[in-house]
Design a protein that fits this description.
Blueprint lengths: L21 E6 L5 E5 L8 E4 L2 E5 L4 E7 L2 E4 L10 E7 L4 E3 L4 H13 L10 E6 L5 E4 L8 E4 L2 E5 L4 E6 L16 E3 L6 E5 L1 H8 L3 H11 L1
Antiparallel strand pairs: 1-4, 2-3, 2-7, 4-5, 5-6, 7-8, 9-12, 10-11, 10-15, 12-13, 13-14
Length: about 220
């Protein structure tokens, strides 16, 4: 099985559809991946490391990855322009599976039962967890002629099920290290220059202005 983590960029923004909200998230700590394919290489599978597992209000547990402008549920990656979800992958034993691992299902269900929150206020913060994959947010005001890559420090789950990537506001930085919940953090999506999330491999190629990666980005923004 061919694998190329995070090197294929999608052709347009993912269009979020109405789905059951996420009630709780848990970090993926064992290197499990999402496998996907796209129309440019139908016989090849690509991999992207899973950031979180999320428990939905319909009882399903799904993997979640940063994808373009948001954090998506892996099975929802079904738009032909953005690729097709193939399954989950355990690279340690090279096993492909299609349901969340039982230990993550049990963890999330137990936590949701223990932590009960009043979800009447959509903006209420349910959880804030650190980013463990080196995710970066790309900020640009001139279509990537110039840009800034900012490390995502944490992800904040709100009562309405939205998950926000949190960046450092340098003007409010008081001390280091910056930890989840720090007052200097703000949602990436609130910055008008925010464009996309990238995992660290692609972010490093962007920093180096790798020609293939930059060409894919310019195609993406057209």
């Amino acid at each position: 099985m061919a694998s190329q983590a995070g090197t294929v960029l999608s052709m347009q923004d993912y269009r979020e559809r109405r789905r059951p909200r996420i009630l709780r998230i848990a970090p993926e700590l064992d290197g499990l991946e999402m496998l996907y394919s796209n129309d440019s290489a139908r016989e090849q599978s690509f991999s992207l490391r899973i950031l979180f597992w999320g428990l939905r209000e319909d009882g399903q547990t799904v993997g979640m990855v940063p994808w373009l402008r948001t954090l998506i549920e892996c099975p929802s990656l079904c738009d032909p322009l953005n690729g097709h979800f193939v399954g989950y992958h355990d690279p340690g034993i090279d096993r492909v599976f299609h349901e969340a691992p039982p230990h993550k299902v049990a963890e999330l269900q137990s936590a949701a039962e223990y932590f009960r929150y009043d979800r009447q206020t959509d903006g209420a913060i349910i959880q804030e967890l650190p980013d463990l994959l080196g995710t970066h947010a790309a900020l640009t005001h001139d279509r990537f002629r110039s840009f800034l890559l900012c490390e995502v420090i944490s992800w904040r789950l709100l009562a309405d099920g939205q998950v926000q990537g949190m960046l450092i506001d340098p003007s409010r930085l008081k001390s280091t290290p910056v930890l989840p919940g720090d007052a200097c953090l703000y949602p990436a999506a609130s910055n008008p220059d925010f464009r996309y999330y990238f995992q660290h491999r692609v972010a490093n190629k962007i920093k180096q202005r790798d020609p293939d990666t930059m060409a894919a980005i310019y195609t993406l923004i057209e």
